[in-house]
Structures are given as C-alpha cells and as structure tokens.
Amino acid sequence: MDYINGIIMMCGINVIAVLGLCILTGFTGMFSFGHAGFMAIGAYTSAIVTAKLGLPFIMGITCGALAAAIASLGIGRLTLRLKGDYFCLATMGFGEAIRLVFNNWKWVGGAIGWPGLGSYTQVWNVLLIAAIAVIVSWNLIGSKHGRNMIAVREEELAAKMTGIDTYKSKMLALVASAILAGIAGALLAHKLTYISPKLFNMVKSTELTIMVIFGGLGSISGSVIGAVLLTWIPEQFRAFSEWRLVFYGLAVVLIMIGRPQGLMGGFELTPAGLKKHFKQRALKLAARKSMREGLIASAGEGDKS
C-alpha cells in the first residue's frame, strides 16, 4: 500500500509541475528547460521554513511558491525579451545555476544533500493541491489573460498590433508556472524527506518538458494524462531496472511518431471540448464525403464523354 501511495503522490507532484510548464510552453509557446530550478527553490525554501524555522508545512509550501515566483520575476526581466532558442538556453542556464548554488551551500547540505526532513506530504494533500492547480489553470486559460497568452503563442507581432501587452502576458505565464513548480518542489522535498541538488538537474527539466509534449501542447487534460502516464510507466518496469528507461523512451518515441501533436493534441476533456471535438470530426467526415462524391461524379462524366 505504501508503494502505491508513493506512486500516486509522485503522479500528483509531477502533474502540478507539468501544469505550470503547460501554461508557459503549451499556451504561451515559450520552451523552458530550467523548471527544475524553480522546483529546487521551492524544495529548499520549504525545507528551511519547516526544518530550520520550525513553521507549519503549509507555510513551507507558501514560502516555496513565493520564492519561486520572486526568482521568476528576476529571470523574466532578463530573458523575456529574448526570442526562440535564446530564451530556452537562458532558462537552461538558470536551472543549472540554481543547482550549483545549492550544490555549494553547506548550510543546506551542499552536494551531500539534506536528510531528515519531516514527512508531511500525504496522498490527500497532494491530490487536493493537484485538483486546485487544475481548476486554477483552466480558469486562467479561459480568462482574458489566457486568451492573450494563446495570441502570443500564435503570432506575437499580431498580438502586439492588437494592443496586447505581450511582455506582461509572458511574465504572467512564467510566474504562474514557477509558482506551480515551487509547490511541486516543496511537496517532493517532504515526500522524500531528503533533498539533493542532483534531484533538480537538467534531466528533471527535460522530463517535465517531455510530459507536456507527450500529452499535447495546448491541452491541460493532455498535460495531466502525460504526467500520470510517464510517471506510472517507468514504475511498472522497475523490476527490469536496466531496461525500464528504455521502455519509457520507446513509449515517448512511438507517440511522437504516431501522433506528433501529442495524445490530446490541444483537445480538452470537458463538455465544451467534447462538443467541439465531435463537431470538427463531423465537418471533416462531411468534407471527405463531398470530395468522394465529387470524384465519383467527375469519373462518371468522363466515362460518358
């Protein structure tokens, strides 16, 4: 039972972190490979608040989220003017810089890590926070700010011409994603009861990005499904310790080849999303039928002539 609870908690923690990256990458179009850095800030800040200051766990989560948000404001001011790959490289450098800071900070364990943290993360609080994160993300994307983010993703110059403050939209997306990553880091720290800079390297950032792409860019439902599946699949092959990551990689490669738009491809599992999906399918089927009838009619006229 403890093993199953552990998997559920890891799924929930990854869902929270991936939702943040979904807002930034999936809806605003800004690829980041430094999100593990925000998780590290959330994890270490929460650990300091609970272990060093002796404050409640909820304060640890809150302070971890605030610290990640403040860090995102700083990195955003420096990088949000950059375009495309340059922003991606800047966030990658930020993530590695944060890891090296904690790697050399002896007060919080340094490279050895920090053991003996309180085991405050439970299934109920992870699932509760994950549910709140999904609701908040859906409401954000459905709001005016979310529509502005999507406009920035589709065509930033056109968005500027219509009066959208693209810098403000990108900053909001970055801060929101950092807050969720900081919360996920705080939950992870008190789930493992041990943190180390190695937990927040570039591999972790890459895993989060893969989960977003796997589920489908521009889909909150897809991000949740991608996070759950890509957390659950490696665990099912843990008995084949030497091969389990091969199966993980194979699953990712197959979905990218068979369905490049991801599992959901921008589709949401909501009543409105289902209605839109079935309407689009009906239009496609009608178009194919009309095309087929047109070809048959053209062939018949050719035979008569």
How would you explain this protein's 3D organization?
The longest helix has 34 residues. This protein has twelve helices and two strands. The protein is mostly helical and 305 residues long. Strands 1-2 form a two-stranded antiparallel ribbon. The termini are far apart.
Key terms:
2 strands; two-stranded antiparallel ribbon; mainly alpha; 305 residues
**Which series of helices and strands comes N to C?**
HHHHEHHHHEHHHH
Proportion in helices: over 70%
Structural class: mainly alpha
- The rounded distance between the terminal residues' Cα atoms is 76 Å
Mean pLDDT: 84
Give the number of DSSP strands: 2
How many helices does DSSP assign?
12
Write the layout of secondary structure elements.
Layout: H1 2-27, H2 35-52, H3 57-79, H4 85-103, E1 114-115, H5 123-142, H6 144-154, H7 156-161, H8 166-192, E2 194-195, H9 202-215, H10 220-236, H11 244-258, H12 271-304
Antiparallel strand pairs: 1-2
Helix pairs in contact: 1-5, 1-8, 1-9, 1-10, 2-3, 2-4, 2-8, 3-8, 5-6, 6-8, 9-10, 10-11
Short description:
The protein has 305 residues and is an all-alpha fold.
